[in-house]
Amino acid sequence: ERVAGIKTKKSYPLIRSRFEIFLITQNLLQIVDVLTRQKYPDIRIFSLLDKTLDLLEKLSKNEERGYLKSLLLRQAFILKLLAFIGFKPELFYCIICKERIKPQSHYFSREKGGLLCQKHGAKDFKLETESVKILRLFLKSRLENILKIKIKNKIILETQEVINNYLEFHSEKRLKIYGLNSKKKQVESQRRG
Question: What is the DSSP letter of 106?
Fold first, then answer.
């Protein structure tokens, strides 16, 4: 079979005009490519990607907060995608003892697939209570509602680290984070300022 022609149904010119948002978009497309199987279409994933690209296009207009909001959108997209393909992290109960997580010290284990209570998680990644709430919101909220949330830069960085580590653990090959790590310094400097 041959492809005789192709017609663009939708384009995103503003994403291409904002380099940092373009990098995030490129990263999301790579993640979808790595985590999904060819020839097995999933309308939920397509719809999630379509909505995310539409929102990234809108964020590209906002010079001031566009990048930070696009980081949140990236995180929510990844968590939702992982849930769709069977890697939804446990964010309400300790993975080991099944006790409900209390608002105190929280730990996240990428290997075990979610939160651990204080008793079982002392060696794992420690999370702020606010970060746990944000991770839960990422999973249950609509993407456009996530963009309305006001989040401290420290929490953005913490949730990004958790999601990147969890994603890396569940992908068969190491994903490039394309310059997002250099942007981490920019977010940290904005936090101090």
Answer: E
H-run or E-run covering 55: helix 43-59
Please provide the DSSP assignment of 110-176 as one string: TTTTEEE-TTT-TTSEEE-HHHHHHHHHHHHS-HHHHTT----HHHHHHHHHHHHHHHHHHSSSPPP
- Evaluate whether residue 69 is within a structural domain: yes
Q: Tell whether 70 is covered by a domain.
A: yes
Full residue range of the structural domain in which residue 175 is found: 13-88+143-192
101-152, pLDDT tens digit by residue? Answer: 988 778 999 999 999 998 898 788 899 999 999 999 999 999 999 999 999 9
Residue 28 maps to a domain: yes
**CA nearest neighbour of 143 among 27, 60, 58:** 58
In a domain, 107, yes or no: no
| Whether 15 contacts 53, CB under 8 Å | yes
| Crossing angle between the packed helical segments 66-84 and 153-170, to the nearest 10 degrees | 30
- Tens of pLDDT, residue by residue over 28-76, are 999 999 888 887 888 999 999 999 999 999 988 876 677 889 999 999 9
Task: Indicate the number of domains in the chain.
Answer: 1
Q: Which residues contact 180 (CB under 8 A, 6 or more apart)?
A: 23, 24, 27, 71, 160
